[in-house]
Specification:
The strands form 4 sheets. Strands 3, 4, 5, 8, 9, 16 and 17 form a 7-stranded mixed beta sheet that branches. The protein has 334 residues and is α/β, with parallel strands linked by helices. The chain has 10 helices and 17 strands. 28% of the residues lie in helices and 28% in strands. The two termini are 16 Å apart.
Length: 334
């Protein structure tokens, strides 16, 4: 085992301040794991946190990156869930095991430990066994994006075969939503701005694709015989929420997970009342749901969609790729 570790740190809220630093390799304390990171995936949240545009501002400097896959290299005193040598993925919300999120939980990648490092200290409760059917790069995409879509549909939304799902975009959460909805036997409508991305979404199993600049609420109603979508995966937010409410079926559900279009909720009260829809904010999910999702992925051999894999030295370029707009996930291999 090496005596030092490498990590990426951001020293000001400007990704040009990202720099690679070396530090002594830490030893796990009581209840902790020392994880050798094999891969980390990036989320839109990481763009916001590193730019200082998130709901809260982490203390500087910090190591970004919320999701990792790796190997347990050493365990601290009192650890009972792991012995060393296991392949694991991290949980996104530290300390949320099941049920309602307890007070005092926090997310990895700020303020919790960041994934863009060769080694990370995790509490033993913050890790689950990695899927047997996926590589480390694939497994690293699951803790935030995949679990957000899974939690929206199966923990909160009671998605079932025959439902119609409206999904915005073709990023990580959106494409996991497409794959999980198809797994459940639901019909998926994708709204996307890029013609090439719409074609790829059709190839991935979408029933219909609609251009972002079209009158997509009217088109969703037309495609559903006037009924609307049973479930909307709202990854944009802002004024887009109002249009999603105009597209949802009576008594349907809108899972609000994104703020690309702004942090304010902009919608007509008449659409809330007319649709009788449930609008649910979703902030990823708990460990038990992550374990359930991983079992389903292993059983179905579902393959996450990765746009591009970067080397550890090219982490800044991975952020740039994510900011340009990826089809699926952007991963850093470590």
């Amino acid at each position: 085992m090496t005596s030092t570790m490498q990590s990426w740190q951001i020293e000001s809220f400007d990704r040009r301040s990202l720099k690679q630093v070396e530090a002594p390799l830490p030893s796990p304390g009581a209840g902790q794991l020392l994880v050798r990171t094999q891969a980390a995936s990036l989320n839109y949240r990481d763009l916001m946190v590193t730019s200082g545009n998130y709901a809260w501002v982490p203390p500087l400097p910090f190591t970004p990156g919320s999701d990792l896959a790796g190997v347990v290299e050493a365990v601290g005193p009192g650890v009972t869930r792991w012995a060393g040598g296991e392949r694991i993925v991290s949980t996104f919300v530290a300390g949320w095991i099941d049920g309602k999120a307890p007070s005092g939980t926090f997310s990895l990648g700020g303020p919790g430990p960041g994934a863009l490092a060769t080694h990370v200290l995790l509490d033993e409760q913050w890790a689950v066994a990695a899927p047997q059917t996926l590589t480390a790069e694939q497994a690293s995409t699951l803790p935030c994006a995949a679990l957000t879509a899974w939690f929206s549909f199966f923990e909160e939304g009671s998605l079932k075969a025959g439902d119609t799902v409206l999904i915005h975009g073709t990023g990580g959460v959106a494409l996991f939503g497409l794959q999980f909805a198809a797994m459940a036997g639901a019909k998926v409508i994708i709204v996307s701005g890029g013609a090439d991305k719409r074609e790829k979404a059709l190839a991935l199993g979408a029933a219909h694709v609609i251009a972002r600049d079209a009158d997509w609420p009217a088109e969703v109603k037309r495609l559903t015989g006037g009924r609307g979508a049973d479930h909307v995966l709202e990854t944009v937010g802002g004024a887009n929420l109002g249009r999603s409410l105009a597209s949802v079926a009576q008594g349907g559900r809108v899972s609000l997970i994104g703020v690309i279009g702004g942090g304010s909720v902009e919608a007509s009260s008449f659409d809330f009342i007319r649709s009788r829809a449930v609008v649910q904010g979703v902030s990823v999910g708990h460990r038990r749901a992550l374990e359930d999702m991983i079992r389903a992925i292993d059983a179905t051999q579902m393959q996450p969609v990765i746009d591009k894999v970067y080397g550890f030295a090219d982490a800044p370029a991975a952020f740039e790729q994510l900011e340009r707009g990826a089809f699926g996930k952007v991963v850093v291999s470590i």
